[in-house]
TrEMBL record:
This is ATP-dependent 6-phosphofructokinase. Pathway: Carbohydrate degradation; glycolysis; D-glyceraldehyde 3-phosphate and glycerone phosphate from D-glucose: step 3/4. SUPFAM superfamilies: Phosphofructokinase. Coiled coil: none annotated. GO terms for cellular component: 6-phosphofructokinase complex. It is an enzyme of class 2 (transferase). It comes from Vagococcus acidifermentans. The keyword Cytoplasm applies. ADP binds at R21, A22, V23, T24, R25, R154, G185, A186, D187, R211, K213, K214, H215.
Length: 320
């Protein structure tokens, strides 16, 4: 392939810019032309496409968000939307597409694959919920952002002898809550992938108080319920001086960590290698610390992301 394009889609994730930079620079290094598509699939359909050169991706490796912008575009799930997108790609002479994003973005790449257009998926989402990879771009930054917040909240919780319910993002996955909860010494972690009993949560808080503990931190994944609802249900078992903190979109922004920058650079360079070989219909990932590429249709239709529930069991043992 001599001419490829890049788009970022769905929720932004720290490290997306590093991936855009890697794809662009590696492709130019290999003698290819690179085009950037603004606003994801929405921009693809209307032809919001421009050629990228080295200066266009300078000074972005350290920036959060996405220089190519992003947008939700459910219309791309339709045949009409997909055909319009392919028409625009052909209009610009583009032979392959790199899609950086999460589940919805991958399904768009899969749709193009099924219509015969070569696309490569790069997992970019803070949720870490994409099958075919142990880690996604943005996840490491997100859990470090949550961890900093947990550490700060602990100071206040201890000063006032309070219970804090800290709600974190993650869509239907509990990875952010799991990793940040273990790293932050949470008393309990509530995730969609594991059942919990509110009475047991209440008993754990009481046991801590009996030992003289001055605070209780509960990290709640948004896929279970909202923090306000959780606190209300908890109050039925006693007055634990509960306060709620919803971290929300603050978790999605910020400068990416070194790990996310390196991961994004690896994924971007690998995607270009695959397209240069004429390969498409793939998604790249990191499994057992090795770069891998798998069929995107098989990955989405037959595989499922599973969080590391050993972390849940570990936290239960450490926070008894």
């Amino acid at each position: 392939m001599k001419r490829i394009a890049i788009l970022t889609s769905g929720g932004d994730a720290p490290g997306m810019n590093a991936a855009v930079r890697a794809v662009t620079r590696k492709a130019i290094y290999e003698g290819m032309e690179v085009y950037g598509i603004n606003y994801g699939y929405a921009g693809l359909v209307v032809g919001d496409i421009r050629r990228l050169d080295i200066p266009d991706v300078g000074d972005i490796i350290q920036r959060g968000g996405t220089r190519l912008f992003s947008a939700r575009y459910p219309e791309f799930a339709t045949e009409e939307g997909q055909l319009k997108g392919i028409e625009q790609l052909k209009k610009f002479g583009i032979e392959g597409l790199v899609v950086i994003g999460g589940d919805g973005s991958y399904h768009g790449a899969m749709a193009l694959t099924k219509r015969g257009f070569p696309a490569i998926g790069i997992p970019g989402t803070i949720d870490n919920d994409i099958p075919g990879t142990d880690f996604t771009i943005g996840f490491d930054t997100a859990i470090n952002t949550v961890l900093e917040s947990i550490d700060r909240i602990r100071d206040t919780a201890t000063s006032h002898v309070r219970t804090f319910v800290i709600e974190v993002m993650g869509r239907n996955a509990g990875d952010i809550a799991l990793w940040a909860g273990v790293a932050g010494g949470a008393d309990d972690i509530i995730i969609p992938e594991h059942e919990f009993d509110m009475e047991s949560v209440a008993n754990k808080i009481r046991d801590g108080r009996d030992r003289g503990k001055k605070h209780c931190l509960i990290v709640l994944a948004e896929g279970v319920m909202g923090a306000e609802e959780f606190a209300e249900q908890l109050s039925e078992y006693g007055n634990f001086h509960t306060r709620v903190s919803v971290l929300g979109h603050i978790v999605r922004g910020g400068s990416p960590t070194a790990r996310d920058r390196v991961l994004a650079s690896k994924f971007g360079g690998y995607a270009v290698d695959l397209l240069k070989e004429g390969k498409g219909g793939l998604c790249v990932g990191l499994l057992d610390n090795k770069l891998v590429a798998a069929d995107i249709v098989d990955t989405l239709e037959n595989k499922k992301h599973n969080p590391d529930l050993s972390l849940y069991q570990l936290n239960q043992a450490l926070s008894f």
